[in-house]
Amino acid sequence: MGKIIGIISIKGGVGKTSVVSALGAAIANKFDKKVLLIDGNFSAPNLALHLGLINPDTTIHHVLSSKTSAENAIYKTDHGFHIMPGTLIYEKINPYKLKEKIKSLKEYYDIILIDSSPALNEEILATMIASDELFVVTTPDLVTLSTTLRAIKLAKDRKTPIKGLILNKVFNKSFELSLNEIEEASDCRVLAVLPHEINILEALSNNIPSTLYKQTDSTYEYIKLAAALIKEDYKDPRFKYRVKRLFGKFSKQDINRTIIKEESDLY
């Protein structure tokens, strides 16, 4: 059986959809897994737009309104994974049917990633209920951290485990919150630190997941996160990281990824 992973945030602009796209591509292409991306942002779906899929005939909205089966709303992409897009203009649907409608897909996919709504509403609750585990996308600033804390509390109230935080758009400047500050405030591990790169915007303009566009620091960080999620071993092949491993120097997120991988092995 596959695993359903919800990627959530309660603030727009943190790059959640780009994270879903890049992470899905890394899992599918680097580790040869069957991956499905689902647009769970029902009010403002844009995952398909990130990938160049415009006005699909059948979508998750048709599935939730029982007009078709989930299998009929899945599209193959050129990026190694499948996608279940949303409809830009739609009739009212019941978000809470999401879990029921997609649970059978776990038989066909190794990993299903849900790109959730960035608002505190029924849609993000539907993602939490449908997911086996959650990851929260945040940025290293106080405003976003405050909304991240709300997302974490909401997930804990719903009893869906939060595996960790994905720290996005990092400039590595002194005005940003440190990993220790973020982990202490949220009581969650940071599992990936993604630098703010022009490569991300270039990839988006070309409708390509950033991990398939150019090999940069963020590409390798996504691959390491992907490996941890699917319990695969991966060692960064770049020279500076080989030297760091030789001297036993590991980043905080490297250690955290090892911990969650070992925790997964226990269950």
Summarize the structure.
The chain has 267 residues and is of the alpha/beta class.
Q: Can you give keywords for this protein?
A:
12 helices, Rossmann fold, alpha/beta, globular
Low-confidence stretches: none
Major β-sheet, in short? 8 strands, mixed
Indicate the CATH topology: Rossmann fold
Gap from first CA to last CA: 14 Å
Count of separate structural domains = 1
Strand content: 15-25%
SS summary, helix count? 12
Along the chain, the helix and strand elements come as EHEHHEEHEHEHEHEHHHHH
Radius of gyration: 18 Å
DSSP helix fraction: 40-55%
Please give the CATH architecture.
Answer: 3-Layer(aba) Sandwich
The average pLDDT score comes to 94
Strand order across the largest sheet: 3-4-2-5-1-6-7-8
Please identify the structural class as seen in this structure.
alpha/beta
Morphology call: globular
Total strand count, please?
8
- CATH top level is Alpha Beta
Task: Describe the model.
With 267 residues, this protein is an alpha/beta fold. Helix content is 41%, strand content 16%. α1 packs across α10 (217-229). The longest helix has 16 residues, at 142-157. It is globular and about 60 Å long. The two termini are 14 Å apart.
Strand-helix topology:
Layout: E1 3-8, H1 16-30, E2 35-40, H2 47-50, H3 60-64, E3 75-76, E4 82-84, H4 98-102, E5 111-116, H5 122-130, E6 133-138, H6 142-157, E7 162-170, H7 179-186, E8 190-195, H8 198-205, H9 210-213, H10 217-229, H11 239-246, H12 252-265
Parallel strand pairs: 1-5, 1-6, 2-4, 2-5, 6-7, 7-8
Antiparallel strand pairs: 3-4
Helix pairs in contact: 1-10, 10-12
